[in-house]
Amino acid sequence: MCAYQPDAELLLPLLRAPEATAILLDVDGTLAPIVKDARDASVPVPVKTALVKLTRKFALVACVSGRQAEDARRVVGAGGLTYIGGHGSELLRPGESEASVDETLAPWTEPVHEAASEAIRELSGLGIRREDKGAVSALHWRGTPDESASQRALESIAVRAEDNGLVAHWGRKVLEIRPPAPFDKGLGVRKLLTGSGIRNALYIGDDRTDLDAFNALMELNLSGELDGIARVAVESPESPKDLLAAADLLVTGTEGVQALIEDLLGEEA
């Protein structure tokens, strides 16, 4: 099956006005192939090169990640991009050394980290890995000796976190413990685009958290803030059905994403 079927009608508004268009991309599973340990993720060199070319053609190119913004920049490794990190709680613009962080989340960082630390101590024999993302802590079970047992054990951790006033959010073989505060990729995208002069936006994502960004683009379109939108889902055996149903276009794997980026570049690819 072809990884990407071009859709000229969908992309035409973006290509007609690149000076007023934003290209927004998730990182893990979209630009960087999914790996057993998230710390080992990286974006292939040809994709990095294409991303830099995108920044020369379009008004804004941004990566929107659950990782902290600085970590997302490390994984992507391409200059000239903006990074929305921590599921919308951080913003790192080109040339900046540190991300600006939503201050309302600061009081929750310690309780979240304590909950994650307690979980790791209890489940140490299962091989579950912890990843701290600022005010969010992620517990990964991809590649553990018994993934089914790991997931079942984490279900009790999720219940306890919510009993303690925190938020449990499930992703692709990951449980995130989050503060009970309003933040997600959609809010991050909305803050970035509102009043920016951007009139068209394309978003590419592969997980349930990207559905918030899809919804944000639709709301901005309906309100008149955006004229044209394109919501692209990366299809894989783990893709959430609701994300695929909401997409305007499907691509297969990170290879499909690369092909779409090259299509956006046209002769510049």
Task: Give a description of the structure.
By secondary structure, the chain is an alpha/beta fold. It has two domains: 8-102 and 183-268, Rossmann fold; 104-178, Trehalose-6-phosphate phosphatase related protein, domain 2 (Alpha-Beta Plaits, 2-Layer Sandwich), CATH 3.30.70. Helix content is 39%, strand content 21%. It contains nine helices and twelve strands. The strands form two sheets. It has an eight-stranded mixed β-sheet with strand order 5-4-3-2-1-10-11-12, sandwiched between helices. Helix 2 packs parallel to helix 9 and helix 6 (185-193) runs parallel beside helix 7. The longest helix has 17 residues, at 147-163.
Rg calculated over all Cα atoms: 18 Å
Strand % is: 15-25%
Contiguous uncertain segments of 5+ residues: none
N→C terminal distance = 23 Å
Instruction: Tell me the strand order in the biggest sheet.
Output: 5-4-3-2-1-10-11-12
User: So what's the CATH class of the largest domain?
Assistant: Alpha Beta
Q: Considering the protein shown, what is the CATH homologous superfamily of the largest domain?
A: HAD superfamily/HAD-like
How many helices? The count is 9
- The beta-strand count equals 12
Count of spatially separate domains: 2
Written as H for each helix and E for each strand, in order along the chain, the element string is: HEHEHEEEHEEHEEHEHEHEH
Summarize the biggest pleated sheet. Answer: 8 strands, mixed
The CATH topology label of the largest domain is Rossmann fold
Question: So, CATH architecture of the largest domain?
Answer: 3-Layer(aba) Sandwich
Mean pLDDT rating: 93
Structural class: alpha/beta
- Proportion of helical residues: 25-40%
Tell the overall outline. globular
